[in-house]
Amino acid sequence: MKRLSREQLPAPRPGVALPPDRGLAASVGIVHLGIGAFHRAHQAVFTEDAALAADEPGWGICGVTQRSRTVVDQLRPQDGLYTVLQRDQQDMTARVVGQVSDVFFAAEEGERQLRLLAAPATRVVTLTVTEKGYRRDEHGDLDLADEAVAHDLAHDLARPGRGRAGSRSVVGQLVRGLQARELADAGPVTVLSCDNLPENGRVVQRLLADFCRALPRREGEQTAAWITEHVSCPSSMVDRIVPATTDRDRADAEALLGVRDAALVVAEPFRQWVIEDRFASARPAWERAGATFVNDVAPYERLKLRVLNGTHSMLAYLGALAGYETIAQAVCDPDLRSAARRLVADDVVPTLQVPPGVDVSAYAEEVLDRFANPALGHRTTQVAMDGSQKLPVRLLGTARDRLAAGAVPDSVALAVAGWMAYVAVGADATGRALPLDDPLARRLKQALGDAPGDARSVTDALLGISEIFGTDLTDHAAFTQAVTTHLKELL
Prior knowledge:
globular, 20 helices, 2 domains, single chain, alpha/beta, six-stranded parallel beta sheet, Rossmann fold, N-(1-d-carboxylethyl)-l-norvaline Dehydrogenase, domain 2
């Protein structure tokens, strides 16, 4: 079967939407770091819809891959085109998106990345690099001991001709790119994080400042001053379920499109984007595509992180342990669905500043109904990845808020115990192996290495990892006991 490209577009047919004229996306206005499936199913779709609604060219996206050139090999032969296969419980539709102008691998084309970040036409830099991509230490600061960060601090890569490979860390890429922008006198730019982090804009701003402080004094002070004057880092909250693409998805898409798409992504119908209205320069008319601009994103992001992402992680660990392959199977288990409801009602709701017009109970039920969509096939082990990075932002903030209010967060303790059992046992109820895909995997195994297999020993060993739990939760006897009680039942 022929491969999707500008010359091999699908024939018009019901259930298939084709991209607009290439002219709307030909000129790059956005550089995106971390162009994985989520960005392609979310921000790129919003951007294309905004360009169409406003009839505004100049917002083409150039994506920069961070870990490998896989997405380059997927998208370049297809002229940047890819399909979003939208699935709900009854219907399936396909949309071919044309907003990505080009894509390249940062490790291979570092100088090109600098030129793009320094180009006056680039007015927005967006990021989806996952929680671990920010390379923070246990205090939330830039991890200066990280190998990639240390490399970027040691090599002045902001000027042309300093090497093809360029910076290795996202924060290093940003700062060196902003230095190149200052040298080119290219004007202000907005750096917009779209990752699941509380106050993600403030996180980016803090890490940029950390990097500058670690530079030689005069250079760091000059760069920091320029960034303060010319760069804004608004926060944003993103929401759309985008599971890993399967062979079944590819087969269904080929049957619907009549061409093969090596860059296919899958998504649910729902999508949401809440953005802090604080931009340094021009931006796409994302509100024309359904995005919401607000003065304060915090209530929205806390609602989403603690209700949706928190229950997602709980269902992933408990569901995987029970032998369920997908989140849909897990949430259809009455006991697990009840556990997710209790997490929201008992522990999350008391910690929320509810956004205007939002019914939290209705929102939570909508979330669980979205999880129950069997057409998505969202794997429990996929959601379980990077638990050491996800737990602090999805569950442990809730725990701290409840403990500060004098209450023991029993449902959070159950979710944490689920993660501990997943890590410690490494297999589900049927004996099937569960993969531990986590940047702290070695640290977790070391912590468990000398511990007996009983629940209290495992709890003490894992709660003692300060990079995840700090020291306050370990010192809280009631929380430790609640985790231990649930872990004993799970083990």
